[in-house]
Every structure is written in C-alpha cells, then in structure tokens.
Specification:
- By secondary structure, the protein is mostly helical.
- It is built from 7 helices and no strands.
- The radius of gyration is 19 Å and the shape is elongated.
Length: about 260
C-alpha cells in the first residue's frame, strides 16, 4: 500500500471509531459565524459522512459556532493558505531546472503547479471573505519555499520528487485532521437536532477540503511514481522536509 493510500485508509478507519465531540459542541450564546467556500467542488469521495452531508438542502438558517470553533476555523484557513502559497512557490522554483533537464516532465510540473495555484486562490478568497489575517510569517515562508524548491531541483529529479512526497504527506495528513474535525461538528449537530441540513456552507467547506486533500495525495502518488524514493540521501531529505512542514504548520496556526 503506497503512502497516499495509507493516509486515506487511516482516515476512513479512524472515522469508524467514535470521535470525541466535547471540544466542538454547539453554543447558542456565541455570535453567528458563517463558513463559505465560494467555489464549485468536485463530487465528494466515498467516505463516512453524516447522514445528510451528501444531500444538502437549501439553507434556511445558519448554525452558530462556538468561540472555540471560530478560532479553529480561523487557524485552519490561515495555515491552509500559507501551505498552498508554499506549495505553489516550491513548484514554481522547481519547474525551470527540472524541465531543462527533463523536458518530458513539463506537462506534469505545469499541471501540479496549476492545481496548487488553484488551491491558493481558494484560500485567498476564504481569508478575504472571513476577514482572517494571513500568517505573520508570510514573507519568511515565501523565501523558504522558493529556496526549498530550487535547492531540491538542483539536486536532481529524484530529490525534487522526494521533496514533493514529503510535503504532500504532511499536507494530506493535515487536511485529514481538519476534515475529521469538521465532520465531528456536523455529526454533533445532527445528533442534537441542531439543523445540519441548513448548514450548507459548512458542508461545502468539508467538500472543498476533501477535494483539495485528494489532489494533494495525487501529487504524492505521482512523486513516488517518478522515483522519489531513489533520491540520494532520501531518508534524511524526507525527515528534514517533513519536520520543516510540521514546524511551519505549528507556527502558522498560531502566528
């Protein structure tokens, strides 16, 4: 089983168990917080979901979110936007040297870059709509991502693909956590009869995160197929890049 398939399997098996919801209970005394993607999502993947998630009805009202849930969404949107910015810049920096050495990879590199640019546009729009500030580390991540992309590309095709594998592994795991959390909210709302069917905006956000996650995992599969694991010093490179991603995620969620 490859890494991307393992991530999907882990996500699904986790959802067969009971998910604690004590941290995401509905609070009617908090101000209303609307969640909207403003994008058209592809059909959701076949995963365990609340009973009515795949058949949303026209929204008649919005379910208020607790202060803790609002903080989670702010943090999630902020770190997702930072991550997609980094991914876009990594591919932008990798593409010229990789394509120069391996012209046949031009369509592949352009395809992956275009998908990352689309993800970035989605989260840029969400940050603007919900008035969430970008991470204060934005300038640092721009330089770091460009350097990582260029540096791994200069080490060769295998190293560039090893970088992609490491980054997409962490991103896929991160998106899985967000999807699990939001589905737990929807299940709690459904169990308490608090209007799951009306909360169409939250459902659309879940679908968008699933779509983007699946596209990131496709990049992971592609990188493995392009000999990522044959990179010189693969284990060390994988460890450094994944550790850097986890650190950047942790910081961006908070700063």
């Amino acid at each position: 089983m490859n890494t991307a398939a393992a991530l999907r399997s882990t996500y699904r098996s986790t959802f067969r168990r009971q998910i604690p919801i004590s941290s995401c209970l509905f609070n009617p005394h908090q101000p209303v917080r609307h969640v909207s993607t403003g994008t058209t999502s592809a059909p959701p993947s076949a995963e365990p979901t609340p009973a009515r998630l795949d058949h949303p009805t026209k929204a008649k009202r919005r379910t208020p979110l607790s202060e803790e849930q609002q903080r989670f969404l702010d943090s999630a949107l902020r770190v997702n936007q930072a991550g997609e910015l980094a991914a876009t810049l990594i591919y932008a920096a990798q593409t010229p040297p990789i394509v120069k050495a391996h012209p046949h990879l031009r369509p592949l590199m352009q395809h992956m870059h275009a998908q990352e640019a689309g993800h970035l546009a989605t989260f840029n729009a969400l940050l603007a709509r919900h008035r969430v500030r970008p991470t204060a580390m934005y300038p640092v991540w721009k330089v770091a991502a460009t350097a990582l992309g260029w540096g791994t590309a200069m080490l060769g095709r295998e190293a560039a693909m090893a970088c992609t594998e490491a980054v997409e592994t962490e991103i896929g795991t991160h998106y899985n956590g967000q999807v699990r959390e939001l589905l737990a909210w929807l299940r709690a709302m459904e169990d308490k009869g608090e209007g799951l069917e009306e909360d169409e905006e939250l459902q659309e956000l879940v679908k968008t995160l699933k779509r983007i996650r699946d596209e990131e995992l496709e990049h992971l599969d592609t990188a493995v197929g392009e000999d990522a694991k044959k990179a010189e010093g693969y284990a060390a490179l994988n460890w450094v890049v994944r550790g850097g991603c986890r650190g950047a995620i942790w910081i961006s969620e908070r700063v």
